[in-house]
Amino acid sequence: MLEGFAASMSSLIDTTENPRVLKLKDAPIKNKVGVVTGGGSGHKPAFIGYIGKNLCDAVAVGEIFSSPPAQMFYDAFKAADAGSGVACLYGNYAGDNMNVAMAIEMAKDDGIVVKTVVANDDVPSAPKDRRENRRGVAGEVLMWKVGGARAAMGGSLDEVINAAQKAIDNTRSVGIGLSPCTIPEVGHPNFQIEAGKMEVGIGHHGEPGMEVADLEPARKMAQRMIDIIIPDLPFVEKDDVVVLISGLGSTPPSELFIFFNDVKRILDEKKISVFKSYIGNYFTSLEMCGITLTMMKVDDELKKCIAYPCESWGLTQF
Amino acid sequence: MLEGFAASMSSLIDTTENPRVLKLKDAPIKNKVGVVTGGGSGHKPAFIGYIGKNLCDAVAVGEIFSSPPAQMFYDAFKAADAGSGVACLYGNYAGDNMNVAMAIEMAKDDGIVVKTVVANDDVPSAPKDRRENRRGVAGEVLMWKVGGARAAMGGSLDEVINAAQKAIDNTRSVGIGLSPCTIPEVGHPNFQIEAGKMEVGIGHHGEPGMEVADLEPARKMAQRMIDIIIPDLPFVEKDDVVVLISGLGSTPPSELFIFFNDVKRILDEKKISVFKSYIGNYFTSLEMCGITLTMMKVDDELKKCIAYPCESWGLTQF
Asked: What is the value of pTM for the model shown?
C-alpha cells in the first residue's frame, strides 16, 4: 500500500530508509519547523494523505487501527527536522501517547527538539471535565491544516505549537455510525450495529458511543450532533466556524451534502457563520458507514491558516 | 443535496434558475468555449464535483442513476455559453443520448452551437467492433480534464471537441464489483454479488459484467483488468499513459493503492510509462464496493491538458 502510494504521488512524496515512514519530497525544509504526525492505518486520507506542501512533512505509519512503534515516530522526526524543531501533532490514543513520548526521548539524544499537540476533539469519548481523556478524531485534519500553514508561514516551533493547540482547543467533533467495518486480518466486523439503528458518538475504531438510537433522517441527526458539540465549547452567536463533515468510508458523498445543508440551516438560525466548509472523506474508518461533524471556532490567525494554500493527496486548495 | 453542495462550494459554484443545474460562479466566461456535462446522480464526484475552474462550466443533474431531462441539459448549455459555443462531454447512455439531442435542438433556436463527445471507454460493455455501444465510465473524468483544460487554454469549439474526442478515443476502462449498492428510493440492492465472488466488467449502475469469478487478490485482479484493456486500444511498449483508479464507493483507499502498486509493476514490465496517476474516488456508484481501472494513452497535447491546473470539489491540482 505504501509503495503504491509513494509511486502514485512521486512528484510530492518520498519514501525513507524506514519503510513505515513517508515524507514530503522537499523535507526537511530549511528554516521551517517540521510537522509530523502518525497513527494506525485504515483512516485514509489520514494520515499519509496529509503529507504535503504546507501540511505535514513526515508521517509514521502503523498497522491498521494500531499505533506506529516509537522507532517510526523517531524516524519521522528525523525526516522532518531541519534544525528548527518538530511539531508532532497527533491524536489522543494510549499507544500513540506512549510511542511519541519514547520517540521524543530518542530524538533528544540527536539534539532534535520535539513539541506536541494532542488532539482531543471527540466530545462523546469523555465528559467535559475530563477533556484530557477524549480521543482525537476528524478535528486532527484542521489541526494539521493550521499547524502546517503556520509552519509554512515561517512560524517558530512555539508559534506552530500554539496555533495547532488553539486549533484543537477550538474544535469539537462527534460521529454517528450506521454500519461496522472489517479489519482485513480479522475477516469479520469487530462490532455490530443493528439494521435500523445508529451508534451515536462512535469512535474511529468502532469504540462504543454514548447511545444506540433508532435511525433518523439527516436533519434530525444534524440537530442531535450540533446539540452535542455546540454547548461543549460553547459555540455562540456571531462565532465564525470551519465545518468539516467526513464520511466514515462507505457513506455516499451525496448524503454528506444533504447533511451539511441541514447543519448550515441550524447554524444560520443560531447566527453562527460558516467561514469555510470541508465536505468529503477526510478521516475514515475503512468501509464503515457513518458521518462525523467537526466544528472549529476561528479567529483571524486560524482563518489565515485555514485559507492558506496546500497540496496533498487528501487536501489540496488554492 | 444540491443546496448543500452549492452552499459548501459557494466561492466556486452558483445555483441557476433551474434547481437541477449548477454552474461555475464565473460562467459563462467571455471568449471561452463552455464545457457542459450531466448525468444521473449517485456517482460523486461525477458529475457536479467536476464543475470548476478549467473543468466543466455547468452540469445537468438527474435523479439517482437516471438521465437529466432535456430541459436540464438545455439550461446547462445556456448557463455555460458565452457565444463561443458549448462542448457537451457526456457518457453513452440511451437516456442521456436522447435528452442531449433534444436539448441541442432547443439550443439551436437560441443560436447556441453545441457539439458533443460521447464517452464510451467501458471495454466490457460491448465488443470492440461495436465500440459505439460501449458505455462511458470513469474515463469521462479524463475527458472533462482534457476538454476543460483545452477550453481554458483558449481553444475553439472544434479544438476542444477534438481534444476531448482524442482523450476518450485513447482511453479504456474496466470495473470489478465486489458488493452491490442500494438506490435509496428502492430500499434494497438492485442486484446481488455473492460473498467470495466478484463481477468482472460491472457497469456503474450494477449492469452485469462479462463474468462472475472467484474473489482474487489485488495482483490477480490487476493482471486480469490490464489483460482486458491493454489489447483493446492497444497500449504498447513506450506508450505514456495516465492511470485513473477509482473506488466504486465503499472500497477503502488503502486497497486502491495496493491495486495501483500491482498495476504499476505490470506496466513497468511492459515498458509502458505512467505519466500521471489519479487514485481515489473519482466516479462512484453509491456505496458499491469495487474498483475501476482506466488508462489513457497521452501525446503532447493530452499531457499538457492533464498537467493543466484545475479546481473543483472532485479534482484540484496545482
From this structure: 0.98
User: Rounded CA gap, A244 and A291, in Å?
Assistant: 10
Q: Which of B3, B264, B317 sits opposite A4 (nearest CB)?
A: B264
Which element (helix H / strand E) includes B258? helix B253-269
Per CB-CB distance under 8 Å, the chain B contacts of A287 are: 250-252, 289
Chain B residue with minimum CA distance to A41:
B254
- Given a contact cutoff of 8 angstroms between Cβ atoms, the answer to whether B290 and B204 are in contact is no
How far apart, in whole angstroms, are the C-alpha atoms of residue A92 and residue A89?
10
Residue B130 Cα, gap to closest chain A Cα (Å)? 33
- Chain A: closest CA distance from residue B13 (Å): 13
A253 within 8 A of B50, measured Cβ to Cβ: no
CB contact under 8 A, A4 and B258: yes
Cβ contact (<8 Å) for A257 and B42?
Answer: no
CA distance A293 to A314: 18
Domains, chain A: 2-170 (3.40.50.10440), 172-297 (3.30.1180.20)
- CA B165 to each of CA A160, B38, B147, B157, B315: distance values in angstroms, whole numbers, following the listed order: 49, 17, 9, 12, 21
CB contact under 8 A, B318 and A313: no
Distance from C-alpha of B293 to C-alpha of A32, rounded to nearest angstrom:
39
The pLDDT confidence band at residue A291, using thresholds 50, 70 and 90, is very high
How far A113 CA lies from chain B's nearest CA (Å)?
A: 32
- Identify the sign of the CA torsion B290, B295, B301, B307: positive
Prediction ipTM score: 0.97
pLDDT in tens, B109-162: 999 999 999 999 999 999 999 999 999 999 999 999 999 999 999 999 999 999
Q: Which residues make beta-bridge pairs with A287?
A: none
CB A315 within 8 A of CB A282: yes
Q: What does the alpha-carbon distance between residue B96 and residue B91 come to, in Å, rounded to a whole number? A: 7
Query: Is B286's Cβ below 8 Å from some Cβ in A?
Result: yes
Three cell numbers at B120? 464510451
- Cα torsion angle, A308, A314, B2, B4, sign: negative
Q: Residues B212-227: pLDDT tens digits?
A: 999 999 999 999 999 9
Residue B177 pairs in a beta bridge with B199, B290
Contact A258 B4 (CB under 8 A): yes
How many of the other CB atoms lie within 10 Å of CB of B156? Answer: 13
CB contact under 8 A, B318 and A318: yes
Interface-testing mutation among B179, B287, B310, with chain A (most A C-beta atoms within 10 A)? B287
Residue B42: φ, ψ to 5°: 100, 5
Nearest to A44 among B2, B252, B264 (CB): B252
With cut-offs at 50, 70 and 90, classify the pLDDT of residue B63.
Answer: very high
CA neighbours closer than 13 Å in the CB half-sphere of residue B115: 14
Cα(A181)–Cα(A192) distance, integer angstroms: 9
